[in-house]
Amino acid sequence: MGLTIAQKIIKNHLVSGEMTVGADVGLRIDQTLTQDATGTMAYLEFEAMGVPRVKTELSVAYIDHNTLQTGFENADDHRFIQSVAKKHGIRFSRPGNGICHQVHLERFGIPGKTLIGSDSHTPTGGGIGMLAMGAGGLDVAVAMGGGAYHISMPKMLRVNLTGKLSPWVSAKDVILKVLEILSVKGGVGKIVEYAGEGVATLTVPERATITNMGAELGATTSIFPSDEITRAFLKAQGREQDWIPLASDPDAVYDEEISVDLSSLVPMVACPHSPDNVKTVEAVGKIKVDQVCIGSCTNSSYLDLMHVAAILKGKTVHPDVSLAIAPGSKQVYNMLAENGALADIIAAGARVLECACGPCIGMGQSPNSHGVSLRTFNRNFEGRSGTADGQVYLVSPETAAVSALTGVLTDPRCLGEAVEVKLPERFLLNDNMVALPAPADEMDSVEILRGPNIKEFPVTEALPESLSVKALLKVGDNITTDHIMPAGAKILPYRSNIPYLSNFCFGVCDKDFPQRCRDNGPSIVVGGQNYGQGSSREHAALVPLYLGVKAVLVKSFARIHCANLANAGILPLVFENEADYDRIDQMDEIVLPNVRAEIEAGSDVTVENRTKGVAFKARPVLSSRQQQMVLAGGLLNYTRENGSEN
Ligand code: MIC
Ligand code: SF4
Fold first, then answer.
1. Other C-beta atoms within 10 Å of 101: how many?
2. Number of Cα atoms under 13 Å in the Cβ half of residue 475
3. Number of Cβ within a 10 Å radius of residue 20
4. CA proximity to 123, closest of 142, 104, 140
């Protein structure tokens, strides 16, 4: 039987397990990346493992999230990461060099290789045919130490692309269409592969926009073939030698298939507060816009910003709109400066921000009260912009730019003839902001620079025989990691200070939750479908762990968060019978009388609701390796007991 692209890469990297859907597979990881908001913790964990030098082919530490320095915290963390990188054989991308996914695609990604990153948008690398996955910081630390990355073998979903995009319709509209079809849960447990004649009409940056936002489908990853277009992109990046061809076999078998006709697509918009709340721009109509933000790892490429510059050229941003633009990388920024496009952007009145995540993660540019903000980003979860009642709509760069001029949501097709932007034959190549690690004979003398903001991470304990807990929180469906552990400029600087972060846990849903935990002791959190969607931040597990959460019982989980819970030693459970969700209320006394024996046996867990006098079964969402991990009290304990390569 033929193989899909992803199956071929998995096969080449398989270190344990069988490639049957749902089975635990361990993969050799060629490359890792971290960003600073998850990186500080990941490197603390890496240090705790005691491995002197990374064992991957390439590991890169990026600084792109926590770039607003309103106190010493972020700058201290940058210096910590820089020193760890130098000491342990990791390349260091300095602040100002750009967003991890954009820079990695330009300078480091290689078709056919595996990449994990402590950021959920790592699948951006699928745009050049990498098997690139988001993971928790601890998983990345283990991979840097030479350990395998474990996933449950995904199903294969083929998206068959036909036709060609019409003028002013772009890659963002493609992925918004896919989100409309599949929803934010539609990719769970699947790898999305793009195929069909439409693939050859899309450039690498366009493909990367699509695979980037596959994270919002909940997919394990998304991937495009590696073809002549990939080769031309790598050649223009001075890296043609990194190219290999990659395609699925003609008789490859997919578990599911959908089709998208590129020719019939129109500009789309994801309305508040979910990336799958998709409508056409035309259907939403000319709503008044207060702010437009262009950038993020989804839409900040050279191609995107050249389109934006062409739309803004010779015009002025509408007087009631604030337009912010953050180029994705120094390469993009520098090229716009050299070819004059930046001058057009500045002249139109855009507020140009540094090459970083910026407003996407609430690092500045929060909209006004009730403000409507059009963003070319990938997430519009409630409160993520930093303004609790902000109304964030996700659109393409073309829709964003034209709406910034008109002051209302506008279909860019009104601009008439398309602007033709070609990818350059040669990008501007200058890696002067990526530092090399110290040579092996000098690494011992590198001093680690640890600031006072770095606090110990919570200690985990082996799973006891039984658990007596209180249901200190009950939430509904689609709870995101931005609900569990919010980000934003005020909180992000404390990513290495779990005790302080804990004051904000579940702040979006229930401000009293942290205090309730302190008052009541061990707890269980109860939730609905797709619990933990969104970010890879392991803080959404470490902070509840610190607050005494022992188990999370929900209808279904998002992949990375579920793995992060197990890594932290928190028991991830799903209702055997979803109707039992209604048999628990907040503050009920819950007992798991035989939990350790049940996990050891790999069986369902008995849940007794002592307040209601009822009992039912819950299923642990754990592979056999994760069972051992939870029994040991988390991945760090497990790794200490079994070595870093297990
Ligand atoms: C995000 O987009 O939510 C982030 C910030 O990039 C996160 C990582 C984090 O929380 O640090 C992600 O997507 O994984
Ligand atoms: Fe940064 Fe936003 Fe991309 Fe996350 S989604 S990596 S915050 S640009």
1. 32
2. 25
3. 8
4. 104
Amino acid in the structure at residue 199: V
Helices and strands, counts by H and E, the chain = 21, 27
Instruction: Round to whole Å and give the CA distance between 344 and 75.
Output: 33
Q: Would you place residue 646 in the very low, low, confident or very high pLDDT band (cuts 50, 70, 90)?
A: low
Structure tokens at 274: 């979910």
* Average pLDDT of span 226-240: 98
Q: What is the C-alpha to C-alpha distance for residues 77 and 452, in angstroms, rounded to an integer?
A: 10
Nearest to 176 by CA among 278, 285, 295: 278
- Residue 645 is predicted with a pLDDT of 58
**H-run or E-run covering 16:** strand 14-16
Query: What one-character-per-residue DSSP string does 367-385 give?
Result: PPTT-EEEESSS---TTTT
Per the listing, tokens 């991990």 go with 629
291, containing H or E segment: strand 291-294
Q: Which atom of ligand 2 is nearest to the CA of 379?
A: 5
| Nearest atom in ligand 2 to 119's CA | 6
Q: Which two tokens stand for residue 61?
A: 């530490």
pLDDT at 460: 85
**Which residues have CB under 8 Å from 167's CB, separation 6+?**
413, 417, 418
| Per-residue pLDDT tens digits for 196-225 | 999 999 999 999 999 999 999 999 999 999
Instruction: Give the closest residue (by CA) to ligand 1 atom 13.
Output: 535
Which of 268, 237, 562, 147 minimizes the C-alpha distance to 430?
Answer: 237
* DSSP secondary structure, 381-449, as one string: -TTTTS-TT-EEEE--HHHHHHHHHHSB---GGGG-SPP--PPPSS-----TTEEPPPPGGGGGGPPP-
Q: Return the half-sphere exposure (C-beta side, CA atoms, 13 A cut-off) of residue 384.
A: 29
Pocket-testing residue among 216, 297, 480, ligand 2, by greatest number of atoms within 8 A of Cβ: 297
Q: 301 CB less than 6 Å from ligand 1? A: no
Dig out the tokens for 633 from the structure: 């009290």
Rg (CA), the chain: 23
Average pLDDT, the chain: 97
481 CA → ligand 2 middle, Å: 13
Residue 190 has pLDDT above 80, yes or no: yes
| Distance of alpha carbon 484 from alpha carbon 402, whole angstroms | 35
C-alpha 109/C-alpha 97 separation (Å) is: 16
Query: Omega of the bond prior to 273 within 30 degrees of 0, cis?
Result: yes
Give tens-digit pLDDT for 512-552: 999 999 999 999 999 999 999 999 999 999 999 999 999 99
